[in-house]
Design brief:
The structure is a single chain. By secondary structure, the chain is an alpha/beta fold. 31% of the residues lie in helices and 10% in strands. The protein is built from 11 helices and 6 strands. A 6-stranded parallel beta sheet has the order 2-1-3-4-5-6, sandwiched between helices. It is globular and about 50 Å long. Residues 1-40 and 177-182 have low confidence and may be disordered.
């Protein structure tokens, strides 16, 4: 089952990008310090509070990493709950690109991973700890993996939770396969590389994805878990969200609640997914994530 909005928000096609480039973005929120002007920032109360006190129950800072096309404000469902539960929650908007102002995750994935690395190292320093926990949505679910593997992030992540992470790339419902067969993938790639370099880098078997997953898709000493949706129209097939190591927890949202119809971008608005995340962060106090979580 797919929704009209899902088809629109699958946005890795040229038609959507062209439309986005013409959108009036005066009301789109971004983080403070962004080079893009004329946009309004909407704060999430209690987020990025370096005076937050870590506790024995929650001993590590928690960094939320958003999806392609979204910003830190996409965590408006999750962040307030996590903060109220006593977590010290941090987040950034990464990957802003001048061709489509106000939308995150468009710059090259490697440069976005460097942004996360810089941000996370600052959190570690300011909070006087050696490790963080990460919750990453879509592209946000691979940036920390690149940081750990290639950007001096090894040993700095304790727990990594992926929400529809683009772990092994995407075929966009086989669109990339057909584009290659018709001989149009290369020219389309040239176009995307100008306006949103991350898009082609996240295609299955791209140079970036092969580099990211070379030697395995996990990192030593990190506790990994992932949740995916059967209705994902961006990361396809949806099972490519999952990491292959036997020690990883991989869950399908609809196995927890058959009533959950969330597609890719709305996974961070699902209360069932939120309960899954809470359980992964604090297994000793886990509550069953199921359709009753919708009454959260």
């Amino acid at each position: 089952m797919k929704f009209a909005i899902s088809s629109v928000l699958s946005a890795a096609s040229a038609a959507i990008l062209v439309a986005l480039s013409a959108v009036q973005v005066a009301s789109v929120p971004i983080t403070a310090g962004s080079p893009v002007t004329g946009l309004v920032k909407r704060d999430i109360a209690g987020m990025n509070d370096y005076s937050c006190k870590l506790t024995a129950a929650h001993p590590r800072p928690l960094i939320l990493v958003h999806s392609t096309l979204l910003t830190v404000d996409s965590w408006w469902t999750f962040a307030p709950v996590l903060i109220n539960r006593g977590y010290c929650v941090f987040g950034l908007t990464y990957g802003l690109y001048p061709t489509i102002p106000g939308f995150g995750g468009l710059a090259s994935v490697e440069s976005s991973a460097q942004e996360l690395a810089t941000f996370a190292d600052n959190v570690l320093t300011q909070m006087n700890v050696t490790q963080v926990d990460i919750v990453g949505h879509s592209q946000g679910g691979i940036l920390a993996r690149y940081w750990m593997k290639y950007l001096d992030g090894a040993g700095k992540v304790y727990r990594h939770i992926g929400i529809s992470p683009i772990t092994h790339g995407t075929t966009l419902d086989s669109l990339t396969i057909w584009a290659a067969a018709w001989g149009v993938f290369a020219p389309l790639s040239d176009f995307f590389n100008v306006i949103a370099p991350s898009f082609t880098e996240m295609v299955t078997n791209s140079t970036f994805m092969n580099k990211l997953n070379a030697g395995g898709d996990t990192a030593s000493g990190v506790i990994f878990s992932n949740i995916a949706t059967k209705y994902d129209e961006v990361v396809t097939p949806y099972t490519t969200c999952f990491q292959e190591d036997s020690g990883v927890t991989n869950v399908v949202l609809q196995d927890l609640c058959i009533l959950s119809l969330n597609e890719h971008l709305t996974m961070v608005n699902s209360l069932v997914v939120l309960q899954f995340v809470l359980n992964q962060l604090d297994p000793s106090n886990a509550k069953t994530a199921n359709c009753l979580s919708l009454l959260f």
